[in-house]
Amino acid sequence: MAQLLTDDEVDTALVALEGWRHVDDALVRDIPITPDNYRWLSEAVMNEAKALDHHPDIERTGGGIRFRLSTHSAGGVTDKDVELAAHIDQVVDGAARDRG
Question: Nearest-CA neighbor of 54 among 87, 30, 25, 29?
Answer without folding.
Answer: 87
